[in-house]
Amino acid sequence: MKILITAPYNEQGREKLASQLGEVIYKEWKQNGRAYNEEELNELLDRSGADALITEHDHVTAGVINAHPHLRFIGVCRGTPSNVDLKAAHERGIPVFHTPARNAQAVAELFLANVINLMRKTIPSWQWLTGHNWDEGAHTSYLQFKGNELAGKTIGMVGFGAVAQRIAEMVRGFPCFIQYYDPYISSADAGFRKTTLEDVFANSDIVSIHLPVTDETVGMIDKRLIDRMKSDAIFVNTARASVVNRDHLLEAIEERRIGGAVLDVFNFEPPDEKDYRLINSPLVLATPHTAGATHEVEDHHVDILNKKILDWVISRQ
Fold it and tell me: Is 289 in the active site?
């Protein structure tokens, strides 16, 4: 078997595939400066003679799949294989593997860091300090930047998949109380309370969104739910922007009807004017879609995908 790998894939992972499956051709998309488009990916597959593909962000369109119906499998180093035409792959009988939870630790850590930074007013206090505002004998900073502790807070999760569960495990020791809404998951851990969507919004100090984009979830978080939040509650979205009605969230922020927001995703990337109204609000701590951006994530996706591929190969022997 010849495997074309365009995803970042560490040497150990490549060697493991080569030793058990055959030849590995490594053409990481970063060398291209961007994800490979359909034409470039077709050319790479043709030139390499590969009969399997491991990708990350490249455009694995129906055109690519139909031009290479012999592919044994497609591996996608992402939480969801959204860059692959799954319908075309299914029609050709090509299995598609992906790497859910590859960034669970990274996103969970940024959740903790940014929620605490927002609650402790870290950024405005740093701006005050670097602005040379500390006068001798003044207690302005102590009064102006007095914040809140995470300990004792109720965190409500909308969606209780890998990231949400990792956060729940990490905040046990603060301690925090975890409640969640997820019609598809019931945690075996008695310390995590399953409840209704309305209850999560009405009775949580922090509401954190962990939803995939589906026909059912787009725009699901709207005024009806946001208006239920406590006046000092924090809204967190490190999942996908489209599951939240941006206008309704913006109204709540600008009218100061909630305590603040931690945002890593936006309706437009790069942001448009309305996104920037959210980003520039003093109640918001925003990052540029970097919650899952750690070097370790690339090692995680190698481990997850190699296991899936090798298990699949063994199951077919």
Answer: yes
Whether 198 is catalytic is: no
Annotation marks residue 300 as catalytic: no
pLDDT above 90 covers a percentage of the chain that reads: 94
Q: Does domain 104-286 have CATH number 3.30.1360.40?
A: no
CB of 207 within 8 A of CB of 158?
A: yes
> Using alpha carbons only, what angle is made at residue 186 by residues 182 and 189, rounded to the nearest 5 degrees?
125
177 bridge partner residues: 154
pLDDT tens across 12-36, in order?
999 999 999 999 999 999 999 999 9
Same CATH fold, 104-286 and 2-99+295-315?
yes
Fold type of domain 2-99+295-315: Rossmann fold (3.40.50)
Domain range list for the chain: 2-99+295-315, 104-286
> Backbone dihedral region of 214: left (phi > 0), alpha (psi from -120 to 50 degrees) or beta?
beta
Q: Which of 28, 149, 216, 269 is catalytic?
A: 269
Which 8-state DSSP code applies to residue 18? Answer: H
Q: Among the options 59, 92, 289, 298, which is catalytic?
A: 289
DSSP of 268-292: SSS--HHHHHHHT-TTEEE-SS-TT
- Mean pLDDT calculated for residue range 215-239: 97
Per-residue pLDDT band for 317 (boundaries 50, 70, 90) equals confident
Please tell me whether residue 316 adopts helix, strand or coil conformation: coil
If you count them, how many residues does the chain have? Answer: 317
- Catalytic-role residue among 240, 246, 300, 301: 240
Residue with tokens 């359909």: 38
Average pLDDT over residues 222-240: 98
Per-residue pLDDT at 138: 67
Q: Whole-prediction pTM value?
A: 0.91
In sequence order, the 6+-apart residues with CB closer than 8 A to the CB of 285 are: 114, 117, 118, 123, 260, 261, 262, 263
